[in-house]
Amino acid sequence: MKITVINGNMRYGSTWHCTHEIIEELQKQVQTDVTEFSLPKDMPHFCNGCFSCIYNGEDTCPHNACIKPLVNAMIASDLIILASPVYGFDVSGQMKALIDHLCYMWMSHRPNPEMFQKVGLTVTTSAGAGLRHTTKTMKNSLVFWGIKKVYTFKFPVSAMQWSDVSEHNKAKIKRDARRLAVQISRSVRNSRKSFNPLFRSIFFRMMSGMQKKNDWNKTDRDHWENRGWLTGSRPF
Fold first, then answer.
1. Domains observed in the chain
2. Which residue, among 90, 65, 75, has the nearest Cα to 35 in the 3D structure?
3. What is the mean pLDDT of each run of 10 residues along the chain (236 residues)?
4. How many Å separate Cα 163 from the centre of its chain?
5. Quick one: 194 exposed, middle or buried, by C-beta within 10 A (0-12, 13-18, 19+)?
6. Secondary structure (3-state) at 122
7. What is the chain's percent helix, strand, coil content, to nearest 5?
8. In angstroms, what CA-CA distances link 107 with 16, 53, 143, 183, 205?
9. Are 113 and 215 in contact (CB under 8 A)?
10. In angstroms, rounded to a whole number, what is the distance separating the alpha carbons of residues 154 and 174?
11. DSSP state of 52
């Protein structure tokens, strides 16, 4: 199983440890090949909002040298993990910056056909509140990239650092990670079977209809037309 992990910060804190608990449980079941990125080290830029990726293609992004390796790793993976602690009731600023850079991959623009057979996972921890909203921010991107099945792992660790997390909570994290790893490995094995999420199917059909009328962005329309998605072909 090929795994790409994108960490929303550079601390080896609770979120990082929970992510690696899950990976370790996966490694007990299948052979894994893990590629890991940490932000902002591996992508230090904020999105300029220049729309160049939308109108002219992703390779024209001024930060493409940093973005492309992350995207290539995700495309080559079976499982994509987005991990961020709660910062101000949401993802870290740099995780949000990455999500902003990758809006061109949403189904409303130019979804990559490879993404439709992948499994996604979000991981987040907090000393207190904000888990649900932070999870939703990352999950939305995975869903709108077209990913088939998205799992979530969120845990209120009630501590500012991993060394302060109680043994009771660490034991529960391990149990939850073990159960989740079983589900993920099963989904990856079955990822190319016929199951198709209803929301994805409906939304893709809606976006296909929109692209048929698209006279404002040739880059997006050509992406859909060249793949036959405007005449009934589907990436799933």
1. 2-195 (3.40.50.360)
2. 75
3. 98 97 97 98 97 97 98 98 97 98 98 97 96 98 97 96 96 98 94 82 97 97 98 94
4. 28
5. exposed
6. strand
7. 50, 15, 35
8. 29, 14, 9, 26, 10
9. no
10. 13
11. H
User: For 141, what's the count of Cα atoms within 13 Å in the CB-facing half-sphere?
Assistant: 24
Dihedral over Cα of 105, 130, 21, 43: its sign: positive
Q: Cα–Cα distances in Å, from 162 out to 9, 13, 88, 109? A: 15, 5, 19, 39
| Residue 119 neighbours by CB under 8 Å, 6+ apart | 78, 79, 80, 147, 148, 149, 150, 151, 184, 187, 188, 191
Q: For residue 215, what are its two tokens?
A: 């006279």
Structure tokens at 118: 């992948």
Report helix, strand or coil for 7. strand
Q: Are 79 and 5 in contact (CB under 8 A)?
A: no
The predicted structure's pLDDT at residue 194: 63
Sign (positive or negative) of CA dihedral 63, 64, 67, 70: negative
Matching residue, tokens 């990239």: 145
Q: What is the pTM of this model?
A: 0.96
Q: Give the tokens for residue 78.
A: 């079976």
As given in the structure block, the two tokens for residue 186 are 């099963």
* CA–CA gap between residue 65 and residue 58 (Å, rounded): 11
Residue 188 belongs to what H/E stretch? helix 167-189
Q: How many CB atoms sit inside 10 A of residue 192's CB?
A: 11
Rounded to 5°, angle at Cα 137 from 94 and 32: 75
State residue 205 phi and psi, 5-degree precision. Answer: -65, -40
